[in-house]
Structure formats: structure tokens, C-alpha cells
């Protein structure tokens, strides 16, 4: 496989490990970027971007980064907290009065950002087209009763997070949440990252495909079993209500909407650049960064049915949990996206890491491809 791009010779082993991913005939395309103390040490890409294998992955290819988007959204919300427009511990209903319905009057932004609010899913099935109707989704969530009482654990909100946090951003910042994210993060840092993609950018978006035959790890199999056998379970509803969530990735209407839980589009360079911007103080003052990266919730996740550990809109490292460690330092923080893409930072080594793929793996938290690359990076730094 021909690898394009730049790498510092000290990181040749990492370039080789990236190339080895393509020994798997199902692998399609991807990119890897690592910055250390703000300096790019590797920025490479390879493979194909389209379904038919005709279009090469280019320097400017972007892909749907799924839940990698969540940390961008959290940082935007924390910037608004720093400006006094939001408060972490004020009731959400202060900014969104309808949200107080069904016993939610004490839920705060902090609860939303750390997946403790009890709103990872909607019980009543919605039509497929509701996915693209912002007011329908936010109204449904404002009326929803939490799935568990405050203080009784946490459950990852794979997609509702985008409407919940996004609606607060929209109300206090006066523009769509994707526009806020781009204006506050992408533009100041010069990142090729979008939440709500212009049609003019569609020709450089990688088509997302799914691998065949790999059943994933035990956590993935547990999740799949529930979704196949328990249609009304919290987990099933979280990923499949509206039913279009799982099937919309390559559709124009998905790319266009501003869904800041799951439809950010960018490249490995934009992920690494974002985490460099967090490490160097460009995006948040140290007090807010400490809130972002402080443990808020840890243990068995009511949605993902595996152990998760959250800060505010980011996943924290669990060094002793095989599917939940970034494989660098114990203070690493970031966010994986469905199927393999990931962005994270390791403050101890000054590393900002971005990895993007368009062949989805079946794993719930960390994809072994990303973990392998992080492990090789750690060896290069040793």
C-alpha cells in the first residue's frame, strides 16, 4: 500500500504500522496525524475514499467522524460557560423552560455533558424523517421522562447528546450549534472540521462502509444481542430511534444537518489540531480544561453495557480496561467515533492524536487499529 504524506524519521515505525493496516483486504482508506507540543510529526493517508475503490484518499479527504464530534461540542459549551452565557450547574430549564417537564427540573448542563441526565434515548418510536427535524427532536426530549433518577449512574447518549447540548448552545449563542463550533473552534485554529457540511464539499467526503465477518469483542457482541432481541431496551432505543440513525451516514441530508453528537466531518489533521489546541490553551483556560478532563462518571454504562469513564463530553482513559484505554498515559482524554476514528490527547507526552477510517469496525469503545497505532507511537517516544 502506497502511503502519502509526511513523517519524521523518528516515527517511521508508526508509518509502517499504519501501512500494515492495509494488509487486511477489507481495509479501504484512512489517515493518521500526530502532533507533539504542537509540532506535526506524522501526517499520512492511504487507500480509497469511495465505495467502488476508484477514488484515492487525498490530503483533503474528509469523513464522518461520528462521536469524535462530541468533544468539540463540549468545548463550545464550556467556552459559553467561561463567557457567562451558560452555567454548568444551573438547571437546563433556566435556558430551555420546556425541558423542566417530566421531572427534569434539576438536570444541569454538567449532567448532560457527563451522560448522567438519564436521556440517552426516546421511548416512543419516531418516524425516520424526524432525525432531520431539529424542533421535533428537541421537543420530544423536552417532554421525555429520564430513564433513571439523577445520581443513579450514567448511560452514554450516542445521538440525543447532540440535540440536548446543541439546543442549549443554540439558545444562548444565537446560531446553529454547528455554526458555533465552526466559528469558535474550526476557524480560529484553521481546522478542516464541519458540523453541517456545505454541498460544495460533498465531493471530497469518504464513503463509509462496514467490514464483513468481524463480530468484535465481548462488549460489541453484548450490545448487538440486546439490539437484536430487545426492541424496547434503552440501548436499542438509543441507537435506533429514529430508525434512520444507523443508515444515514452517506446521505446528503445527514451531511447537511447540524447534529453535534455524531455528524462532524473532518480529517485526522483536524482531530490532532483540535487536541493540540486544548493542550496549548488556545480553546479553554486551564480551569475549564480541568473541568472537561476531570472524572465525572465511571463504571458500568447503562447504554453501552461496558465500563465507561467520562469527563465533560470526553472519554477518560481506563488503563486496566482493554477496550477502554487509549494506550498512552493514564491522563489521556479524547473521544472515539463509531467504527474506528478517534481523536485524543495525552498531556504527559504532549501528544495530540487523530486517526480516521472509512471501513467501520464493530467495536463499542476503542478500535484495535487505533490502539495498535497508539502503542507504536508510545514505543517511538520511549
Secondary structure elements and pairings:
Blueprint: E1 4-7, H1 12-21, E2 29-36, E3 39-47, E4 63-64, H2 69-82, H3 109-113, H4 134-143, H5 160-173, H6 177-189, E5 194-195, E6 209-210, H7 218-229, H8 234-240, H9 252-256, E7 264-266, H10 268-279, H11 286-293, E8 297-300, E9 307-310, E10 315-316, E11 333-336, E12 342-346, E13 351-357, E14 359-360, H12 368-381
Parallel strand pairs: 6-14
Antiparallel strand pairs: 1-3, 2-3, 2-13, 4-7, 5-7, 8-9, 10-11, 11-12, 12-13
What's the mean pLDDT score? Answer: 96
Bin the helical content.
25-40%
Instruction: State the total count of DSSP E strands.
Output: 14
End-to-end distance: 27 Å
CATH topology: Beta-lactamase
- Number of individual domains: 1
Written as H for each helix and E for each strand, in order along the chain, the element string is EHEEEHHHHHEEHHHEHHEEEEEEEH
- Spell out the CATH superfamily: DD-peptidase/beta-lactamase superfamily
Residue stretches low in confidence (pLDDT < 50, at least 5 long) are none
Which shape, going by the Cα principal axes? Answer: globular
Residue share in β-strands: 15-25%
- So what's the CATH class? Alpha Beta
- Largest sheet: number of strands, sense, barrel closure: 7 strands, antiparallel
- How large is the count of helical segments? 12
- Name the CATH architecture: 3-Layer(aba) Sandwich
What's the Cα radius of gyration?
19 Å
Which structural class matches the secondary elements? alpha+beta
Pfam families: Beta-lactamase (PF00144)
Keywords: Hydrolase
Protein name: EstA family serine hydrolase
Domain Beta-lactamase-related: 16-374
Amino acid at each position: 500500500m502506497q502511503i502519502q504524506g509526511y513523517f519524521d524519521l523518528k516515527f517511521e515505525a508508526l508509518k509502517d504500522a499504519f501501512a500494515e493496516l492495509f494488509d487486511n483486504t477489507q481495509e479501504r482508506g484512512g489517515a493518521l496525524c500526530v502532533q507533539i507540543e504542537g509540532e506535526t510529526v506524522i501526517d499520512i493517508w492511504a487507500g480509497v475514499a469511495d465505495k467502488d475503490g476508484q477514488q484515492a484518499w487525498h490530503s483533503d479527504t474528509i469523513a464522518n467522524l461520528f462521536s469524535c464530534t462530541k468533544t468539540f461540542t463540549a468545548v463550545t459549551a464550556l467556552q459559553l460557560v467561561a463567557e457567562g452565557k451558560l452555567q454548568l450547574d444551573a438547571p437546563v430549564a433556566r435556558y430551555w423552560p420546556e425541558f423542566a417537564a417530566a421531572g427534569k427540573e434539576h438536570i444541569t448542563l454538567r449532567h448532560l455533558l457527563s451522560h448522567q441526565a438519564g436521556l440517552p434515548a426516546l421511548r416512543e418510536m419516531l418516524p425516520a424523517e424526524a432525525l432531520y427535524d431539529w424542533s421535533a427532536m428537541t421537543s420530544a426530549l423536552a417532554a421525555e421522562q429520564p430513564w433513571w433518577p439523577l445520581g443513579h449512574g450514567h448511560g452514554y447518549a450516542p445521538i440525543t447528546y447532540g440535540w440536548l447540548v446543541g439546543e442549549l448552545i443554540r439558545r444562548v449563542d444565537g446560531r446553529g450549534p454547528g455554526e458555533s463550533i465552526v466559528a469558535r473552534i474550526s476557524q480560529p485554529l484553521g481546522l478542516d472540521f464541519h458540523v453541517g457540511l456545505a454541498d460544495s464539499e460533498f465531493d471530497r467526503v469518504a464513503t463509509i462502509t462496514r467490514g464483513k465477518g468481524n463480530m468484535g469483542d465481548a462488549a460489541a457482541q453484548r450490545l448487538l444481542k440486546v439490539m437484536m432481541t430487545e426492541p424496547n431496551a434503552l440501548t436499542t432505543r438509543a441507537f435506533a430511534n429514529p430508525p434512520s440513525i444507523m443508515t444515514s451516514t452517506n446521505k446528503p441530508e445527514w451531511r447537511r444537518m447540524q447534529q453535534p453528537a455524531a455528524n462532524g466531518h473532518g480529517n485526522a489533521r483536524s482531530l490532532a489540531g483540535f487536541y493540540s489546541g486544548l493542550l496549548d490553551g488556545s480553546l479553554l483556560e486551564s480551569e475549564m480544561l480541568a473541568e472537561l478532563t476531570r472524572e465525572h462518571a465511571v463504571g458500568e454504562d447503562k447504554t453501552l453495557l461496558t465500563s465507561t469513564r467520562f469527563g465533560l463530553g470526553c472519554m477518560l482513559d481506563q488503563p486496566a480496561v482493554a477496550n477502554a484505554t487509549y494506550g498512552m498515559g493514564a491522563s489521556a482524554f479524547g473521544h472515539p467515533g463509531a467504527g474506528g476514528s478517534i481523536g485524543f490527547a495525552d498531556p504527559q507526552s504532549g501528544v495530540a492524536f487523530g486517526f480516521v477510517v472509512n471501513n467501520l469496525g464493530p467495536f463499542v469503545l476503542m478500535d484495535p487499529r487505533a490502539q495498535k497505532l497508539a502503542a507504536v507511537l508510545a514505543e517511538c517516544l520511549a
